[in-house]
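Reviewer 2 asked us to include a model.

Predict the structure of this chain.
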Amino acid sequence: MKIGSNQQIFEDFGDNWFKKMKEYGFDYADLRIDCELDGRTEARYEEIILHQKALADEAGVTIWQVHGPWRYPPHDETPEHRAERLHAMSLSIRLTGKIGCKYWVVHPLMPFGADDDFDLDRFMDINYELFQMLLPIAKENGVTICLENLPMKFLTISTPQKTLEFVRRMNDDSFKFCLDTGHAAVFGIQAADAVRMAGDDLKVIHVHDNMGEYDQHLVPLTGIIDWKEFHKALCETGFDGVFSLELRGYDLLPHATTDTRLKAIRAIVDEITGY
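Predicted model (structure tokens):
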């Protein structure tokens, strides 16, 4: 199985993070393109992303997925806020295509906040309208949008089942599902069950663990998820994507050296993918 990771556990290495990923056996990267310009022009932001792509190529690492814009707390309550998100997401998709990455992962808009649907029909309609506008941009740039399940307990769309219902409502080959294993566990849903539920709609996974109470991004085998069954489900369904970690990383052996911690994380991945 192809093995990947997000950037966070390699942040200590600065611009060498791709080389370190490769050194520890992670051949695929999850890159964040949040399009928060922070005073930069869009052209300058694009230069930064293209530089990251060049560093990945130099290290022999493939950018397998991009995580699109996400801010917390969400500010999606007005048409103006939603227009700003549409612009940021559109730019992020274009940059995803420009670096040759196929999969772009995103959360839904949250017009009533992160902890309340308030008006479920309106919530769903706002997101349907948003993604209908983003789909042509994704297609033009060779990108597949992957909607991620969430850990917010009071948002109806959060569970894998409800996220998949939305994906299937969109009914488009360029709109698929990203399974976040830890987010599912918050609802008491085993990752293996979500994999089987998703079937061919599953294109991207975010792999981490927790104790079933809230989103912790723990290293696998340190929480409640049944990883042996998860791997079995991936094999049964023919998942051919990347086993991609989304960790903080410092919760495992917090007082160990970075080298020791990364070797331990990689050994855990080997154990799970070797079941």
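The chain has a mean pLDDT of 95. The two ends are 11 Å apart (CA to CA). We have added this to the supplementary material.
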